[in-house]
Amino acid sequence: ELYIANAGDSRAVLGRLDEATKEIKAIQLSSEHNASLESVRMELRSLHPDDPQIVVMKHQVWRVKGLIQVSRSIGDAYLKRVEFNKAPLLAKFRLTEPFEKPILKAEPAILVQKLCPQDQFLIFASDGLWEHLSNEEAVDIVQSYPRNGVAKKLVKTALSEAAKKREMRYSDLKKIDRGVRRHFHDDITVIVLYLDSQYLTCANSRVPLVSVKGGGNMGYDIDIIDA
């Protein structure tokens, strides 16, 4: 069994072989905690019934307290404990009003997925990738591209899409200073983990399910890019 714990808007996607069509299907294994989702806004409002400003639309994006899109995270202590809501944190990132209970939670959503021989690989990526690629597009790239460098291929494809949306070339986007590029795309972190089907059965098993050793039939590929 695979246990997925997620707090925030990163995503885990499983690539599974459909034996009938011989195609690789994308299966999302994580739930996202982003204020753009109506269910997340409803959860926040139920947790903070006395705060009409718990989620507000700012710059055409739903944000928690007008500051952040995620409703759960490991960091962002200034929205969890009042003693962190002060300098040296820049004033524009602070809450102006006091709060008694945490606004964000660090509690993850946990999903248990039974792995089967048809499961080929897992893609773990931050929201910077998923802003520009669908689950199906990412799975198609991993399936059709050589294992070595596949994470970098996903990042490059996402950046190319980000450049296209701004009517510019990928090569021109890469020339922009990292601090300025934040206006064009978010940070992107991608990990692709390949599964060896000889270890996977649909029945309970205690043998190793995955390995992070490079080479052979199993391995992983990682790429990170800062905005």
From TrEMBL:
<dbReference type="GO" id="GO:0004722">
    <property type="term" value="F:protein serine/threonine phosphatase activity"/>
</dbReference>
<dbReference type="Pfam" id="PF00481">
    <property type="entry name" value="PP2C"/>
</dbReference>
<dbReference type="InterPro" id="IPR036457">
    <property type="entry name" value="PPM-type-like_dom_sf"/>
</dbReference>
<protein>
    <recommendedName>
        <fullName>PPM-type phosphatase domain-containing protein</fullName>
    </recommendedName>
</protein>
<dbReference type="InterPro" id="IPR001932">
    <property type="entry name" value="PPM-type_phosphatase-like_dom"/>
</dbReference>
<feature type="domain" description="PPM-type phosphatase">
    <location>
        <begin position="1"/>
        <end position="195"/>
    </location>
</feature>
<dbReference type="InterPro" id="IPR015655">
    <property type="entry name" value="PP2C"/>
</dbReference>
